[in-house]
Write a structure and sequence with these properties.
This protein has 134 residues and is of the alpha+beta class. The protein has helices spanning 15-25, 66-71, 87-96; strands spanning 5-11, 29-30, 34-36, 41-47, 52-58, 76-84, 108-109, 115-119, 129-133. The structure holds cobalt (II) ion.
Length: 134
């Protein structure tokens, strides 16, 4: 069912430093910082050609990555995002398989303006999985 790897999201408490590492040390094409108040994060996109890395820094009081950074103070891989053709069909298929969908289970508009759902790490090898309608 899943298609391409859309992005790997890496949480950090210092997005400027993270962007420098990707730009200067690793030599990647790195975007400007984009505050996303609706999502409680600041993002920097690293374009790798075949996929993206999204660097995430908490923004505001109730950032969804705040707890993760409490547990992982030096940062780390927060989630992976796979593309699907139809988010509702994917959601229903995951439900039927017994997977836990976070939140209400209704798709939300993600950081790229496309509908997404998140699947609980306990069902997916310890990794938070985002499904995005391509
Ligand atoms: Co994502």
């Amino acid at each position: 069912m899943i298609g391409r790897l859309n992005h790997v999201a890496i949480a950090t408490s210092d997005i400027k430093k993270a962007a420098r590492i990707y730009r200067d040390t690793l030599g990647a094409k790195v975007s400007d910082e984009v505050p996303q108040p609706d999502h409680g994060v600041v993002t920097v996109f690293v374009d790798l050609g075949n996929t993206k890395i999204e660097l995430l820094e908490p923004l505001g009081e109730n950032s969804p990555i705040a707890n993760f950074l409490k547990k992982n103070p030096s940062g780390g891989v927060h989630h992976v995002c796979y593309e699907v053709e139809d988010i509702i069909a994917a959601r229903d298929q995951m439900r039927a398989a017994g997977a836990t969908i976070t939140g209400t289970g209704e798709p939300r508009i993600g950081a790229h303006g496309k509908p997404v759902i998140f699947l609980h790490p306990k069902d997916f090898v310890g990794t938070l999985v985002e499904l995005e309608q391509a």
